[in-house]
Amino acid sequence: MRGPGIPPVAARGAVASVVVVLAVALGVAGLQAGPVVASTARSPIGPVWQDEAGAGGPLDAGGSAPTWAVAGCVQDAQSDVVDLPARTPADVPRADITRFCVDHAESGLSVSMAVRVPTDPTRDPVWESVGAAVAFGYETTGGHRRVINLLRPGSEPRFEYHVLEPGADPVGICSGAASVDDGTYRATIPADCLDAPEVIEIGAQMFYDMSDGPESGAFDAAPGDGGFVAVPRTAPAGAARATRLAGPTRVETAIATAQALYADGTAGAVVLARADAFPDALVAAPLAAALDAPVLLTPRESLSPAVGEEIRRLVGERGDVVLLGGVAALAPAVEDALTAAGHTTTRLAGASRYDTAVAAARAAGPLPRTVVLAGGADFPDALLAGAAAPAVEGVALLVDPAGVPEVVEEYLAEVPDADVIVVGDVARRVVADADGTAAALNPSATSVALLDLYADESEVVLASVEDFPDGLAGGAYAAIRGVPLLLTPAEVLETSVRDALAERGPYQRITVMGGPDAVSDTVAGQAAAHLVPRTAP
Q1: In the chain, helix, strand, coil percent, each to 5?
Q2: What is the pLDDT of residues 23-72, one digit of tens each?
Q3: For residue 427, what are the CA distances in angstroms to 127, 424, 454, 472?
Q4: Most exposed among 226, 376, 494, 525, judged by the fewest C-beta atoms under 10 Å?
Q5: pTM over 0.70
Q6: Which of 410, 389, 380, 352 lies closest to 476 in space, CA to CA?
Q7: In the chain, domain spans
Q8: Cβ–Cβ under 8 Å, residues 469 and 455
């Protein structure tokens, strides 16, 4: 059976993985504006762009404060480097992007990139003659692709940026000095060289050790496996129009979320999860929706007094509380405090996160119409799977990068008539014959691919793709309300999310999970532009 609303493969990028190789000649003074002459040598301005067509906050990658109008940083998953051209996984920390940053203003653009193990391009011989390169791709005001490369053009100890417009006859635009400070690669490009629009759509790539040619070596991209983020030149107004559910900490944010959902004594139960680790709570949302129960967070060792008070408000003195995970996740003292207060407790746990997810699925109901599978080693895909499952009358389970765990296989055998939808690349790789697939270049784009599952798009929930706590409560909030969860970098809006909001809006409500550190006011303002306009009083 075909999973509802999800084609066999969704949102995999419009263009196949092809290395765009530009080989050019440089003068002694560096790249000058005008035609770039092609040659058969390795490009002195870089392998330029791994064209995997996607769409492409206020700190830079080295940690200093921003200086221009709007700045944004994007965290990138670690250990996601691949070897070109085969795109097989590679452990090359010198190519492993940890984050990149963009500072956008009238005067120009500052870009920076941090990698797991940086080297000094002027000293590391691998960088010589463009053996390594940093690339930032963006579109101009006229919609033309341009690339900013940071590289060492020859054997001399020079680190430079080069801006060019790629194509069959690539055009060099300008060049200048780049730098490496505290292990972070940086450059500042003047506005007259950029032709950048008011909102620049930009992504980052890292190439290292192209000793066998420009289509070889270690490669990483951000955000995710590709894509772009949208960075406005001026801070957008209207962030206050978005509904922000937030507290001083993740624990208080979950409480604020519960208070937005339930009046006193109206929750069916409470689902309680550990505040500082995600494995057992990744797929809590279907259980929360089935029990009509918010997800609250508490420290492992003890029950937070504020959480205890909120539980009493939600379910009364003797209401039900479901604990997710074994005693390693929530210590016996947590359960003891709940039972001493008069609550009935149920602990759902197993030998691993995979077993705990199956226990939660069983507790959510006996016969799901759909089983949604996602990788359990990291949180974004699993968080999305949990939030989306109730929209298709389903549950969410986790799979391992090495394969489908036996406990999950056993559960699937018990529900042979259920459709199977896989979310994210890990599940796509290890699950054969799924009825539907949502897997995109990055988790933000994957969240967009899931939008077709929802009948109600009057509201969307926006949470950080970079950290899990607010998303745990937000996923349950979205599941209970039957509305989509979208993931975004904390400081800049991913372009597929922005485009989806524009195409599917305007919305009656956009709910932002967490404070400005989790989802910035810039992102909230960008999203709020797609709310239904206010009417004059």
Answers
A1: 25, 30, 45
A2: 222 222 222 222 222 222 333 444 444 444 332 222 234 333 333 345 67
A3: 36, 6, 21, 20
A4: 525
A5: yes
A6: 389
A7: 19-234, 244-528
A8: no
